[in-house]
Write a structure and sequence with these properties.
By secondary structure, the protein is α+β, with helices and mostly antiparallel strands. It has a single domain, classed as 2-Layer Sandwich (Alpha-Beta Plaits), CATH 3.30.70.20. It has two helices and four strands, in the order βαββαβ. The longest helix has 5 residues. It is globular, with a radius of gyration of 11 Å. The protein starts with a strand and ends with a strand.
Length: about 70
Amino acid sequence: MAKYNVQFNVDRCKGCEICVSVCPKKILKLSTSEVNAKGYHPASIIDMDSCIGCASCATMCPDCVISIYAE
């Protein structure tokens, strides 16, 4: 099974939570402690090993914040 690396451009994220809502594995969340340059709590992944690489999060992100790479 392939492993995936999900990367976020944290400074561009506006915390809309669309990626969180479309993730079939429910492994994305908004940071509760980090605030980006725009003043938003950015999205992050909580369990990289559970990512199936479906790219739903990246496809739905209106700001193209998420990149997914197969390792």
